[in-house]
Amino acid sequence: MTGFGDALRYLNDPLTWTRRGGVLELLGEHLAISAVAVLAAFVLAFPVGVALGSAGRGSGAVVVLSNVSRAVPTLALLTLFAVSPIGFGNRATTIALAVFAIPPILTNTFVGFRGVDADVREAARGMGMTRRQVIGRVELPLALPLVMTGVRTAAVQVVATAGLAALVGGGGLGRIVNLGFGQQDYGRIIAGAILIAALALLTELLLVLVTRLVTPGPRRGPLHRLRERTVAGQPEPTASGVPL
């Protein structure tokens, strides 16, 4: 328990957060690296997923590209970048994380657009919509839940992995963990791990809320649905599971 106690003392020290190179500054760097990586991955993967999924072709290419991207470890890419003109630092980490974020975005976008009913597409074309209008007004709203799931998965993975930036001279919360290992300070190591894990969880929760806001259709919580069923005449279950 000494390590956790030291971690709590480290996190409860105001100077830990506000000083130069403190938690707040490292948190900003961590978020910047993650946001740029996910945005770059989305710009590259989303159009490809839309084109292939809407056309209903290229499933083999998507699977191969996704598997190859997943098979390449981020740390291996950082090692390769270190001996290339890309070098060390945040740029190398951002590129490696963008490669890491492409598979979930590409796969979910492809599956979402491919899953749109062909009859819905034909009905939209029969109404005189152009190809672009069909994609933007019909296919995208139907595929959006899966697209957002891919973005959420990629973002959480990137936030949780961005701590590797510290291994190649970059910034972010991983510097706390890296410095803790260098000083054999287990409290600092645990504190850094807690911060990264908490940030990943907050990213997940935030993107779940964003998904609910941008997804078309009624957004009802479980309590609202329970009230609707009760009003409709269905008996409300008791704690024992037996209807009243």
Q: What features would you describe in this structure?
A:
The chain is mainly α. The protein is built from eleven helices and no strands. Helix 1 packs across helix 10, helix 5 (74-82) crosses helix 6 and helix 7 (118-126) packs across helix 8. The longest helix is centred in the N-terminal third of the chain and has 33 residues, at 23-55. The mean pLDDT is 81.
> Helicity level, as a percent range?
over 70%
Taking all residues together, what is the mean pLDDT?
81
- Rough shape? elongated
How many domains? The number is: 1
Question: Based on DSSP secondary structure assignment, what is the total number of beta strands?
Answer: 0
Order of helices and strands: HHHHHHHHHHH
Give the percentage of residues in beta strands. under 5%
Low-pLDDT ranges? none
Structural class: mainly alpha
Question: How many strands, which pairing sense, and closed or not: the largest β-sheet?
Answer: none
Q: Give me the CATH architecture, please.
A: Orthogonal Bundle
